[in-house]
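R.M. (postdoc): so does anyone remember the format we settled on? I'll just put the structure tokens first.
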């Protein structure tokens, strides 16, 4: 199966999911299906069932645009057998409750597992498909249907066993080192403990996943990558085969290969930076050493990113255009921080960066808000302008 066919299959799955979800919505009734919580009942109700909660402000334009989608999801889950409840908290009337849950921008969306009081923040685009996928991932089963989207694979000591059901979705973004094998293959049997050792040694590495596929059980997956012999070790980026490993199959050699491939991507991103005109410095690049001094004055809008991240790559040209808009404003800086650099990893941990890209706004060195809106130029610009003082003219 080629990439065009693969993308078509993924698109078809999303369309089928959307059709299914829309079919669950009964248009005969027109009332709010999401529940409204306050400081008086939030902590009690959140313990009883899984919850997806929107912390919002009534005046917030992004919140208003999200409202119909939020109610659509709430309507889909409005039955006694549902394993999740959709709720809202008005931060203008319950500011202390929102502060307790680290709400620094509107809307902030969090998933709360039943019995737990700490939520998991949603960082994707706020559309129906993305929100449903987020719920699917955290509920462990498909929201609204048992069979449309498979549950994500679970790693055993860092090693993922991929199947025909979950392979395409899993490798669609990010870096993947995959072993295609057959259980009867002697070379595969010899490699197995080394491959497990590699996965275990990289289990805490957020930048690459180590996985395997049994070609005797999942032939369609192996067929789409034209696997001719076993074991075949492929490096896959954002769903596409980039390289075939042909080196020595020792733990040291395999781990060195992973490092080389990750460093190669960093080098490629560096060579793509624009040095040809006055817009080169529209975006200020900071590291763990320069960050504190770089943001100590004025407004700083910071993108924490990883070069391998697909969402980061798509945001990069928009982020540069955003920087150009503020080139003449000395009080606003558009900043980026590469969290994969050793010099910046501690900084990213300190700033609670738990996904890429993460966008934080700082005023005079202090973090004041996280941006969770649409990643287009107009919305990003509008967000900054809400924090710019009246005398900060562009």
């Amino acid at each position: 199966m080629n990439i065009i066919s693969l993308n078509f299959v993924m698109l078809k799955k999303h369309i089928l999911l959307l059709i299914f979800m829309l079919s669950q919505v009964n248009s005969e009734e027109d009332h709010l299906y999401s529940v409204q919580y306050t400081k008086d009942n939030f902590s009690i109700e959140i313990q009883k069932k899984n919850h997806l909660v929107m912390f919002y402000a009534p005046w917030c334009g992004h919140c208003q645009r999200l409202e119909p989608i939020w109610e659509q999801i709430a309507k889909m889950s409005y039955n006694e057998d549902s394993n999740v409840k959709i709720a809202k908290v008005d931060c203008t009337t319950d500011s202390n409750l929102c502060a307790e849950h680290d709400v620094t921008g509107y809307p902030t969306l969090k998933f709360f597992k039943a019995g737990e009081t700490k939520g998991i923040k949603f960082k994707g685009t706020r559309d129906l498909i993305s929100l449903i996928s987020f719920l699917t991932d955290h509920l462990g089963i498909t929201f609204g249907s048992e069979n449309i989207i498979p549950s994500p694979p679970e790693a055993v000591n860092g090693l993922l066993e991929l199947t025909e059901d979950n392979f395409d979705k899993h490798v669609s973004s990010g870096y993947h080192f995959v072993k295609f094998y057959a259980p009867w293959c002697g070379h595969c049997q010899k490699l197995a403990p080394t491959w497990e050792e590699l996965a275990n040694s990289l289990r805490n590495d957020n930048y690459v996943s180590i996985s395997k596929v049994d070609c005797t059980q999942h032939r369609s997956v192996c067929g789409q990558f034209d696997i001719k012999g076993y074991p075949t070790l492929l490096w896959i980026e954002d769903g596409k085969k980039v390289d075939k490993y042909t080196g020595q199959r020792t733990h040291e050699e395999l781990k060195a290969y992973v490092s080389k491939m990750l460093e190669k991507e960093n080098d490629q991103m560096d060579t793509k930076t624009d040095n040809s005109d006055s817009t080169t410095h529209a975006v200020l690049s900071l590291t763990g050493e320069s960050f504190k001094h770089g943001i100590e004055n004025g407004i700083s809008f910071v993108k924490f990113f990883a070069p391998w991240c697909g969402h980061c790559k798509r945001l990069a040209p928009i982020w540069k255009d955003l920087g150009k808009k503020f080139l003449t404003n000395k009080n606003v800086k558009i900043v980026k921080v590469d969290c994969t650099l050793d010099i910046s990893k501690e900084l990213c941990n300190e700033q609670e960066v738990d996904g890429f890209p993460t966008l934080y706004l700082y005023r005079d060195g202090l973090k004041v808000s996280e941006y969770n809106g649409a990643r287009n130029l107009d919305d990003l610009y509008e967000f900054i302008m809400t924090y710019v003082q009246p005398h900060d003219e562009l």
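R.M.: ...and that's the designed sequence above, right after the tokens. Also worth knowing: The radius of gyration is 23 Å. The longest strand covers residues 50-56.
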